[in-house]
Amino acid sequence: xxxxxxxxxxxxxxFITVLSYMALGLFSSLIMGxxxxxxxxxxxxxxIEATMLVTVGEQAIxxxxxxxxxxxxxxxxxxxxxxxxxxxxxxxxYEAGGPAGSYIAALLATEFGKLFxxxxxxxxxxxxxxxxxxxxxSGKYIGSWIGSLMTNLGEVIRWGTEREPLVMGIFVATVxxxxxxxxxxxxxxxxxxxxxxxxxGAATIGCAAQMIGFGVISYRDNGIGGFxxxxxxxxMLQVGNIIRNPWTIVPPTVAGALLAPFATxxxxxxxxxxxxxxxxxxxxxxxxxxxTMGFTAEYYLVVGVLCFIAPAIxxxxxxxxLHRFGRIxxxxxxxxx
Length: 337
Prior knowledge:
Blueprint lengths: L10 H35 L5 H12 L1 H12 L4 H37 L6 H41 L1 H17 L4 H8 L3 H21 L1 H13 L7 H6 L5 H17 L6 H4 L7 H10 L3 H28 L13
Helix pairs in contact: 1-2, 1-3, 3-4, 4-5, 5-6, 5-8, 6-8, 6-11, 8-9, 8-11, 8-14, 11-14, 13-14
C-alpha cells in the first residue's frame, strides 16, 4: 500500500534527497533574499537608489518557510493538492521551529497526506485538510522540538569554537567541508544549526576549500568548464570519483583543515548561517563573510586569500604529493557528465 501511495520510508530519501531539495528552497528564498538585500543596502550607502532590491530581498526572506515546504513536498513527489498545501505547512513549521521545523512539518504532512490522497470522492477537501492539520501539529510539537535541538547543538558548536578556536575551527571546517561534497546539504545543515560567528567562518573556509580545491586539482581532467562547475557550482560532482578512489578527497580536506586556524585564531573571521555551508557556490560564502565583517579592502583581501588563493595552492601541493606516490592517477578526477 505504501508503495502504491509513493511512500518509501527510505532514510536516503528523507536525509539526502529531501535535504538537497530543501537547500534549493533555502537558496531560492533566504539566501537569494540576503544577497539582494545586501546589494541593495550597499548601493543605498553610496547614494544609489536601490530600495526595490532591499524590499524584494526582505520579502524573499520572509517566505523562507513556504519555500522549504514546497521544496520538501516536491522532493517527495507530492500530488498537487498536497504540494500546494505544503506552502502553508512550511510556514507553520518555520514559525514553530525555524528551518528544521519546516522540514519536519512538510515531510510528515506530505507523507500522511499521500495516505489519504484520492481515497474518497471528497479528495479536494480531505487531502489538503489532512495535510494542513498534520503539518500544523507536527510543526508545533515535533518541529519545534527538533528546531530547539538543532539550535542548541549549534550553540554548543559556537561556544566550543569560541573557547577552542584552533581545535574546533579545524573540526568544523573539516566536517562542514565533507558535508558539502557529500550527497547531503551542508547549506541546509548550517542554517538548521544556526551557525554564525567563528564557527560559521571556519565552516565557510572548509567548504570553500573543497570547491576551489577540487576545481584546481581536477583541472587537467576537466578543463576550465569543470573548474567553474566545481568552483562556483558544487564539488558534489566528484562524489562518484571519491567512492572509486577515496584519496581524491584528501587534498581539499587537508587544505581546509590547515586554513581554518588562520580564520579562527589569527583573523577571528565570522560569517552567518546562510553563508556557513555554501562555500564559494554562487560566491555566497565569501559574500556573507563580507556582509558580517564589513566590505573593506582588508577583508576583500582576507576573503580572496582564504577562500580562493590559499585553498588552490595547498590543495595542489597535496595533490602533487599523492600523485607522485601513485595514490591519485590521471583520470581519477574526471567528471562524467
